[in-house]
Amino acid sequence: MDCKEIVNQPVIEKDRFMLRPIRESDLGLIKLYASDKRVALMTSSIPHPLPPGMIEAFVSRAMRENREEDIWVMDGLQVGGSEVMGVIGLERLERNQSEISYWVAPAYYNTGLASDAVQSLVEANPMKNAAMFASVFQDNPVSARVLTHCGFEYLGDAEVFCIARNAAVATWTYSMKF
């Protein structure tokens, strides 16, 4: 097996999970969770149903050295959890900023995992950003609470196209300055 190391992407260890770079062996569980309609409907970029090859392409992009986004897997294996509980990422933006995005597997909804993962990434600030941004769908107030719980401040309303819904969806946008 060919193991590829993700360059310049730290492992962030916490008590109940670790945030680690994505690897090829995560493909099956990511595909399983991303194909769940509940997950797809709360993201802008995951279609439902999943087209063939989409998750393979996602994993491949996430492992490239010249990627535009760092992706971490929420891995609870070392503490008796699942190897993939969710995914969290930072997309590089201009002026030393990034946009955080995440989804959690339905089995981990309402467990505080999303808040802990976002807080861990904010505290680590692995890209040494001056600011981070995030957007959530307005019909997902739980994700909005995750962001405000982690110190993000409301910026305003916008909308984004959701592939799974095949429609524009109203969003709330948040930011955090460092």
List the helices and strands and how they pair.
Elements: E1 12-13, E2 18-21, H1 27-34, H2 37-40, H3 54-63, E3 69-75, E4 86-93, E5 97-104, H4 113-124, E6 131-137, H5 141-149, E7 153-162, E8 167-177
Parallel strand pairs: 5-6
Antiparallel strand pairs: 1-2, 2-3, 3-4, 4-5, 6-8, 7-8
Q: What is the average per-residue confidence, as pLDDT, rounded to a whole number?
A: 95
Strand content: 25-35%
Structural classification: alpha+beta
Number of strands: 8
**Annotated CATH topology of the domain at 12-133:** Aminopeptidase
Largest sheet: 8 strands, mixed
Question: What's this model, at a glance?
Answer:
By secondary structure, the protein is of the alpha+beta class. It has 5 helices and 8 strands, in the order ββαααβββαβαββ.
